[in-house]
Amino acid sequence: MALIKSVRGFKPTFGANCWLAENATVVGDVVTGDHCTIWFNAVIRGDVNSIRIGHHSNVQDGAVIHCTFERTITAIGNYVSIAHNAIVHGCTIHDHVLIGMGAIIMDNAVIGEGAIVAAGAIVTQGTHVPPGTIFAGNPAKYLKDVSVELNAAIDRTANNYIKYASWFEESSASSEQ
Questions:
Q1: What strands lie across the sheet with 37-38, from one edge to the other?
Q2: Which of the 8 DSSP states describes residue 68?
Q3: What is the DSSP letter of 103?
Q4: Rounded Cα distance, 150 and 115, in Å
Q5: Does the pTM of the predicted model rise above 0.85?
């Protein structure tokens, strides 16, 4: 069972049909939408400010989501994939976004709808990634526009993580019998 902990009077709340890995950690002022998945060793710390995650979004293995005390919240939209070992801190991520493996998104950054932040990219404080673009590098800069094929892959990835979670539900149900 995931570690779900109240902090400063705030207890995480989850929408319908969410799945959390046994060693995921979710604390404090965190609210998720429906059909979200939170994977192994992911940490979502709403201890110092609020974190909101939309429907059909996933926080993959080792990712960390946090914010800054009395300064920034973290708002994540619908159909967002936060890939393995990414750090998302005090920023806004709009709908239909892919944050690549090991990427870092800093305070007050805004990731526009349909954008991709490439693996390993560092989106510095206050950066605005326009909708439908790919940003890469350190510091992250415009690389190119998201193609039709990549745009379809963003939602496909979000939907695949719901499917992957169902595999774990099936295996735990069969092992309990």
A1: 19-20, 37-38, 58-59, 81-82, 98-99, 116-117, 133-136, 141-145
A2: B
A3: -
A4: 10
A5: yes
